[in-house]
């Protein structure tokens, strides 16, 4: 249910249940989690690229997976067991996570894409906060990320109406990094992931951490955090290499250390 390949420091994870629009069942959840756990564990992995197989990115939870004979489901348990650990793994990974939204991203699928660090989308892709259509509340961090990324008015508009938002508009609004012509999406996403994986990934990881911390920190706390992280970055081999390469007018060779 997940295709995992590694090349040039990039772990590519592809959601692979195309006939179900890559919606999540338990097996896919566990496989995707294992992929992100591997990215946490292995130093050789310096960036992750997440995408979907077929015409969709991800249609959220597999709604056909529910067995009505088992009575009223406890969705809180599903969230606690599967979605929240995944979201925490993505956000706490101190390596860039690039998402290539190749087609429709609905429900939890949309919000997982928004939790990634740099999200590109094919021009034909759409983001749908589908929850409202079935009586649910946005999950996978959507109620946190949407207002932060696009403001409360647009967040509520999307979440209450479940109106699809095209990739172009998503980029204009600041929901994602960039909309890309369909035929160029994967090439651009791979180039970006490879470039970041060859970068000073210790510094990039701390940059991710700092920007995320800003959502809840005061300016004073944030200035202290920047001081502490810069102290660490300043002692890194990558900083020494970056400055040497600059002065010697050559390309730096970063090791992520
Ligand atoms: C699907 C799905 C799907 C199963 C398409 N499941 N089969 C967390 C905790 C616990 C429980 C609940 O949820 C959550 C979080 C969530 O993610 S809630 C939101 C769940 N997702 C949705 O409500 C989206 C449902 N899907 C759609 O609205 C449409 O399929 C979209 C807009 C994604 C795509 O529309 P189309 O391009 O027109 O494709 P389609 O609707 O024809 O779908 C193609 C096939 O995929 C179809 O099967 P079939 O056998 O008829 O070809 C769909 O039934 C199946 N499929 N999404 N989530």
Describe the protein's topology.
Layout: E1 2-7, E2 10-15, H1 26-41, E3 47-52, E4 56-58, H2 75-92, E5 97-101, E6 104-106, H3 108-115, E7 118-122, E8 126-128, H4 142-150, H5 152-161, E9 165-166, H6 167-173, E10 178-180, H7 185-197, H8 201-213, H9 219-234, H10 237-247
Parallel strand pairs: 2-3, 3-5, 4-6, 5-7, 6-8, 7-10
Antiparallel strand pairs: 1-2, 8-9
The structure holds ligand LHQ.
Protein name: 2-(1,2-epoxy-1,2-dihydrophenyl)acetyl-CoA isomerase PaaG
InterPro entries: ClpP/crotonase-like_dom_sf, Enoyl-CoA_hydra/iso, Enoyl-CoA_hydra_C, PaaB1
Pfam families: ECH_1 (PF00378)
* CATH-defined superfamily of the largest domain: 2-enoyl-CoA Hydratase, Chain A, domain 1
Structural class: alpha/beta
Q: Which hetero ligands occur in this complex? A: ligand LHQ
CATH topology of the largest domain: 2-enoyl-CoA Hydratase, Chain A, domain 1
Oligomeric state of the chains present here? single chain
Total separate domains: 2
Strands across the major sheet, in which order?
1-2-3-5-7-10
How many helices in DSSP terms? 10
Distance from first to last alpha carbon: 33 Å
Look at the structure and give the CATH class of the largest domain. Alpha Beta
Quick check: average pLDDT?
97
Named at the architecture level, the CATH assignment of the largest domain is Alpha-Beta Complex
Largest sheet: 6 strands, mixed
